[in-house]
Amino acid sequence: MRKHLLAIAFAVPLAACAGVPAPASTESGAQTERSAAQQAEFYLERIASLDDAGPQLNSVIATNPDAPAQAAAAERAGLPLAGRTVLVKDNIETSELPTTAGSLALEANMTRRDAPLIARLRTAGGVVLGKANLSEWANIRSRNSTSGWSAIGGLVRNPHAIDRNACGSSSGSAAAVAARFAWAAIGTETDGSITCPASVNGVVALKPTVGLVSRTHVVPISHAQDTAGPMARSVADVALLLGAIAGSDPADAVTAEADRHRTEYHSGLADASLEGVRIGVMRNQVGERADVTRLFEQALADLRRAGAVPVEIALDPQSEMYRDEFEVLLYELRTGMDAYLSSLPGTGLPGSLADLVAFNEAQAAVEMRWFGQDLFELALTKTDEAAYRAALENSRRLAGEEGIDRLLREHDVAFLIAPTTGPAWASDLVNGDNFSGGIGMGSLAAIGGHPHLTVPMGQMEGLPVGVSVIGPRWADHAVLKAGAAYERARTAPLAVPTFERWLPPTTP
Fold this sequence. Notes:
The chain contains 15 helices and 13 strands. It has 508 residues and is an alpha/beta fold.
């Protein structure tokens, strides 16, 4: 099944989804009453009733009708994932479905090839259930975009409040997991595109160490910062999916060390302990919202009860880090996009970033109704390689060696923590995104290439908020174990999707 929905055709129904059953548990190791094939069929039916119809979350662009049969075969074969279903962000190539990056320019991009991370997923017994919607071109087209919107898939709606944003750019992946449209999903991140959607949709996600997961056959932004990563409803399931997709790829030199560092990420989670573990509390990244601060203080209290030793840390990242990151992203967008597009096997497709700019101008009534392509146009001017290399070296130094790595070493802490971001804002295609500033430290992990886990820490006014755990490069397993220990210790109630517009709760 393929969906092609334009934002101009959207209506926002107010009908609730009462009576829609929750799927049987698919947590790692859990026994369910459904076979893998039945579970896949259940998810497809749920997508049809809640994503295509009803509240129309628009989190899924296309589905794989062969998923139930593939799930049955994987379960019979006794493979590790046993036919578990995964939605894949639509900038990652899968052989059975087009890879569009949400743009009409790639609507016919049927490569018939699997990205290496997808090949690994299948080898482990995972099943591609479909392609998840995203912020078009992973949110690198314009400064004034609305996260979660693409010309192919329309605007992703947050299942906790359908008039609220699902954050970008892996918005569809996170919203779909929260809505229980699949066992798990795969997103991609350059800076915040896995962790922000996971936080505001109330799910667990890991932005892995850059180089742990292959980027071959993934629509690129930045060779220095891009990575794919897992999203699920528990740390254990995120770890299980990471183990399936991680590993070295000869076509992606950045992953040369991945096989040496790769491990059984789901092992040791059930009894992971924080007893005596020193954790750096990034106080300046908590922000100024009293409601977020209260939730974070409750999370800190839970961590203390679990035996952790919080250590207060003050850091104000230098503005030149963000300035130089911006230069890196634009330069690598031009070179990386040109290389990717020119390698596509189909005909009649754009072959360069300049071709995309021309396509958008020709299709402006649809592609640029809500926002333009100022970042695409600016990227075309970034041709100074010496300036790029200087910016790359400086931004990495400030985020890594003099940022995360220095803080971990000087304060003798194992991890750094802070709220991931604020609660979801109201979606506004006319005015664009409305982030709450000053919350979180995801850019440090993104620029430095460090692992960044977000775990739900509670809710405010029915809207989820996550807490971030960031560790040294290649310490993905340790970060996951810390997240699992916090998950067990957490006392705050979590938000439950309503599939309705946001309304103030009747009680505080």
